[in-house]
């Protein structure tokens, strides 16, 4: 199975490299990812400048554009053998709640869905940059999801957003079908003055927790579960996620056994 990998952390990021190494054992992945970090760029496209594509090693390409551009370029690159699924990630940090609207990781998956390619975004949730990052856990989760056919059960014009707790694989409690939660931020703006006595500002809001909702992606992660959240991209498309629920039941059975 051909798989297109993209992200917003950049082509050299540990997350996408771990994912590539895991998936190439059983599948045929190709990376097309930004040459520089593009985190929180949302769904930007480079319509005002040319895009450069640089071959870095077999099946690994760096793209001068944004995550959405990377998917477009990847689909062009693989037009003779279209990928069966696009996986965006593994993102360095959570994409929970309303954060998905800012996320370049989600944007790459969304762009794929717009072009009728099943798409999955995956993020590793951790509290700070100093703790050990279990990208291998998230990569194994993606591998399992693909082996169990998650991508084949995503309705058209939907994507699936997966968030994985930052723990060893054997510490994962299970998988849950979740809804989009809501995360609270302090929304602080820090005003400062530069050396030329001009005003400038930092958006410096701090995370303050999430709104209580037992079925949310935020709660699942808090409880130690992998959160699998379908997201419909437009109105009046199928929201029948029964196939995804059946895959989750099989995933849960597999890790228990």
Largest β sheet strand count, sense and barrel closure: 9 strands, mixed
Residues in β-strands, percent: 25-35%
Query: Treating each run of at least 4 consecutive H or I residues as one helix, how many helices?
Result: 6
The top level CATH class name: Alpha Beta
Commentary on this structure:
The protein has helices at 14-23, 67-77, 104-114, 135-147, 217-222, 242-256; strands spanning 2-6, 28-34, 53-57, 60-63, 85-92, 119-125, 158-165, 175-177, 183-185, 189-193, 199-203, 207-210, 226-232. With 257 residues, the protein is of the alpha/beta class. α1 (14-23) packs across α4 and α2 (67-77) runs parallel beside α3. The two termini are 26 Å apart. The mean pLDDT is 93.
Task: For the structure shown, list the relevant keywords.
about 260 residues; alpha/beta; Stationary-phase Survival Protein Sure Homolog, Chain: A; 9-stranded mixed beta sheet; 13 strands; about 25% helix
Provide a compact summary of the structure.
The chain has 257 residues and is of the alpha/beta class. Helix content is 26%, strand content 28%.
Helix-strand layout with pairing:
Elements: E1 2-6, H1 14-23, E2 28-34, E3 53-57, E4 60-63, H2 67-77, E5 85-92, H3 104-114, E6 119-125, H4 135-147, E7 158-165, E8 175-177, E9 183-185, E10 189-193, E11 199-203, E12 207-210, H5 217-222, E13 226-232, H6 242-256
Parallel strand pairs: 1-2, 1-5, 2-4, 5-6, 6-7, 8-13
Antiparallel strand pairs: 3-4, 7-13, 9-12, 10-11
